[in-house]
Amino acid sequence: MLKATNPIIDLHDVSVTFQSNGKTLHAVNHVNLQINQGDIYGIIGYSGAGKSTLVRTINLLQQPTTGTVTVSGRHLQQLSNPDLRTARKKIGMIFQHFNLLNSRTVLNNVEYPLLSQSINKHDRRAKAKKLLELVGLGEFEASYPEQLSGGQKQRVAIARSLANDPDILVSDEATSALDPKTTNDILKLLKHLNETLDLTIVLITHEMQVIKSVCQHVAVMDQGKIIERGPVADVFSETV
Ligand SMILES: Nc1ncnc2c1ncn2[C@@H]1O[C@H](COP(=O)(O)OP(=O)(O)OP(=O)(O)O)[C@@H](O)[C@H]1O
After folding, report:
1. 47 lines ligand 1 (CB under 6 A)
2. Is residue 224 lining ligand 1, measured as CB closer than 6 Å?
3. Atom of ligand 1 nearest to the CA of 20
4. Could you tell me how far CA 210 lies from the centroid of its own chain?
């Protein structure tokens, strides 16, 4: 099947500046970034390079100071608030520290994003159970997050991020708190979801090994700019 050639994510001349202590900090500095549907696109760089700030513009959790954000052909800054809320549901996010609700069961955590939808309890439960099966945690639905390992918690977070059938998953250092074996398992899961759900994944990391093991393309960020980009094999050819 031919894939669409229009990028699913198109950041055009995006900048984000912060004012701190009377100084202007250029966290993201005139970045252009196009990501195609079905890609696993890595963004790598040192701490403070601007990776998180950049990817937070993809769903406008971070409003760019200048530039335009187009996702799935829609210019997000032009959307009404209700339309933006709908568009955001199609962009899942996972984080280093999982961000689970500790007072709720695993099943309730996965159901949570569906509570605001017009979907009845039975269907909601069924969907959450199916997602838990998909991430390999079917038998843990009644557990609480604190009873799980880090890798299992991240699987719950992944299941939750899929509740609204997103087109895009943004992974912000999702494996940084995990040991190498668990990291590998989570990356395999992400690759599986990419392939089976045609999920476009934007993956932030500071670890080259993570990029090499799952990403097709990579952008290297430094001081708010993308200083290098391309297929992983090309960008890292000298370091492989
Ligand atoms: N809300 C904010 N207010 C002020 N400065 C900020 C804000 N958010 C980020 N910054 C600054 O912007 C710069 C880029 O931060 P960002 O978190 O995007 O980098 P990063 O590459 O993701 O690094 P890390 O991996 O450490 O999160 C840093 O200097 C940071 O201190």
Report:
1. yes
2. no
3. 4
4. 14
